[in-house]
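Hey,
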Amino acid sequence: MESGPKMPSANIIIIGAGRLGQGLAEAIATAGYEVMLVDKTTKLAEHGIRRIGESIDREIGRWGLTASDKRAIMARIFPTSDISQSEDAEIVFEAIPEKLAIKRALFEQLDKICSKSALLVTNTGVLSISEIAEATSRPEKIIGMHFLRPVSRVPLVEIVKGLHTDEETFNKAVQLAEMLDKKWITVNEYPGYVTTRIIVPLLNEAMHVLMEGVASAEDIDEAMKLGFGFNVGPLSLADMMGLDVVMSWMINLLDELSEHKYNPCPMLRKLVRAGHYGVKTGSGFFEYDEEGNRIGCNNNSHDEDKKQ
């Protein structure tokens, strides 16, 4: 990461200004705390902050926040590309892509930069906390906090202990969850934890039902919402999560557990290969406008599957 000028100090650092990092920064700033958002370049971090502003604008449109709230929240978020800003941080969140090698490399770097008392948090839905922690000289101080998106609206966080995570670190994570007004559950490390392991087979089966022509995407989602009380249907949920992320979870769980139920549906593989990742690209199982509102159904891949 490129170095930059000293920015206003913040006790909380988030590394990764993608959608997850944006959601974390918004939640932390909304709770009244300053936060620094770090990415490979300051431009990327600034782009992340602009996206946070757009997210808040949508909340204002729903009467959830006011313009005054937005000004206060945005004033608490600072962009930078200088990872050395983590030196004095009390809390460092990692919110980079779900790839073990790059997460381990980042934590190895943070281990050299951060104070020994810092809480180092990885946000992953499937990867091993212990394997990430092994890249540091302080595995007992590394913990997982799996926030679900959108972070500002989903009240749950999974607090995941690695094999060596100590009680002091766990208690700090609990305090952090409560600071953000999140309900938390304790998870002992195992592939997929609780939420990912349970939701992935459901999403995969919904995709198979669509691919096999049993029902339309709209009707599959409607059935699950009305029949089982889901707020969001499984195909819409997959689009919101990011189809590339969902597929990476499936592949990781398939590798770890060797269970066929985690083998990604061919339709999902096709959409990801084509760059249709869901809401963030404007197309997945459904079509979306620039603000993420659903505007229709993507029938292309389904039609092709039925022809084969």
